[in-house]
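Z., the sequence and structure:
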Amino acid sequence: MHRMTRRLALGAAAAVLLGWGALWLAGAAGNPAASRALATLSALVGYQSSGAVGAIVPRGVQIGGPFHLVDQNGAPVSDADYRGRWMLVYFGYTFCPDVCPTELQTIAGALDKLGPDAAKVAPLFITVDPARDTPAVLAKYVELFGHGISGLTGTPDEIAAVARAFRVYYAKAPVGGTATYLMDHSSFVYLLDPKGRLAALFNQDTSADELAAGLRERLSQRT
């Protein structure tokens, strides 16, 4: 009996690990095979597809939570400052050569398509590279994308805490054995409702049109 219980527990743990691996691959690499695996494994790890294209709805998995960071103006902010608005959160870094600017362009494009409803959304860009992404650096970066995107940073411990809360993977990736480095990181856009609860995840393959459609669908719902 104990042996069977142990096998069941190990099987459940393996399913969870495989599911999060598929989530990371689908978001970080835009991998079609991983996206198919995600659809297959979603029922095992508590996820289901949404009516909105590109959206994943969490079931029974806690993602998100309180945070205390600093914005691009050097002002302290917390999750409580955004209550009453939908939060659209993306984790990345300003030295990112491709994925991050692409995703922020997608977010900006989706907000542009929302028109007046964009005022209901607080777009946040949280760095995973606090050593280089100071408030001044973030200020210049988010200005490139417009739509009131806020750049948030903090101490390494504060960034680690918020990344854990959102289940974000990130790690330094040295370039050619030098002091230069990139950051490996997962790539999802998180949508939280006005009460701070996760409403949906959008993967890296989501277009601006699809993201706008997903946002319209959520904004029309009562929270």
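The helical segments are 2-29, 32-45, 99-114, 135-143, 156-165, 208-219. Residues 1-51 have pLDDT under 50 and may be disordered.

Let me know what you think.
H.
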